[in-house]
């Protein structure tokens, strides 16, 4: 693909002065710089083109050759007298780098000097009753806090750290390597942009000390396993006076010995004697709030029969000052229990009942009628 005219790339006329060329280059380089157009191949290619154009047009000899021969002056097509391809445009870029991105780099250096602390995670287990009512828990969190002796600066007597002499506070150093200018983390300050001449004895210059903290955590009613609670500013202390990270509480609700939970719905499996299930009656069941509710058992109830208690399940999770939705329900599921350890008299009564109860077991009759048909079909 043919190269674009250098003057058109920079948007200037062929009679432009040196200052006009530099000003046009600054505008184009700022617009196309990779730091402002991350992962954009088009901007990256354009940035290289304007750098090449500026490298040629800023030099009077190269510009004169370009005005006379165009791009051919740098492609080896002019014999021994032609210019070679422009080499290190890093030097050209360095001329205006501070003007273009001084504020940006300075801001980045400031962020490196005062780094935010890391976020922390704490796994907290609560009972189903605590998840129902909500509770305030006291937890102990290991971690770091800002050093009180130096107020987090890392310097003895809370003195302000000095600007790194190697990188002038940018946290980065640049070096030209052939065609490119390479930027690396400053080896003197490790990217902080500052150095501590007299480190604090209490924290060895880090600005942080290890210390366990006791915090009060409000667990709202209705939490489920996996619920996350964020405590802003309760994470690790930042370095060199930077802000603290956040603490995230991850809730795990323990399994209950009586109730099973599915969202807001609670389920309670209640064993019922064979006679009570057949005759019907009334049973008393527990509720998660510690109360009791009476439930009527219909005559002829089978295992798996369910009854619903409205509003006796879990509350909705609170959002801000209000609540969303209504409390869930509680399902009572019947389990018909077969009697064991029968006495002689009980056996006699059950045998007598079995002889006269042929019409009282419709499911058994239906099942064995199907079985009989199956066997006859196989025999036929």
Automatic annotation (TrEMBL):
GO biological process per UniProt: DNA replication; protein refolding; response to heat
Zinc finger CR-type: from-to: 134-212
Localization annotation: Cytoplasm
Residues bound to Zn(2+) 1: 147, 150, 200, 203
SMART domains given in the database record: DnaJ
Domain of life: Bacteria
CDD domains: DnaJ (cd06257), DnaJ_C (cd10747), DnaJ_zf (cd10719)
Residues binding Zn(2+) 2, per UniProt: 164, 167, 186, 189
Positions of the J domain: 5-70
An annotated GO cellular component: cytoplasm
Region (Disordered): 300-319
Cofactor: Zn(2+)
Pfam families on file: DnaJ, DnaJ_C, DnaJ_CXXCXGXG
Domain CR-type: 134-212
Cited function: Participates actively in the response to hyperosmotic and heat shock by preventing the aggregation of stress-denatured proteins and by disaggregating proteins, also in an autonomous, DnaK-independent fashion. Unfolded proteins bind initially to DnaJ; upon interaction with the DnaJ-bound protein, DnaK hydrolyzes its bound ATP, resulting in the formation of a stable complex. GrpE releases ADP from DnaK; ATP binding to DnaK triggers the release of the substrate protein, thus completing the reaction cycle.
Subunit structure: Homodimer.
Name the record gives this protein: Chaperone protein DnaJ
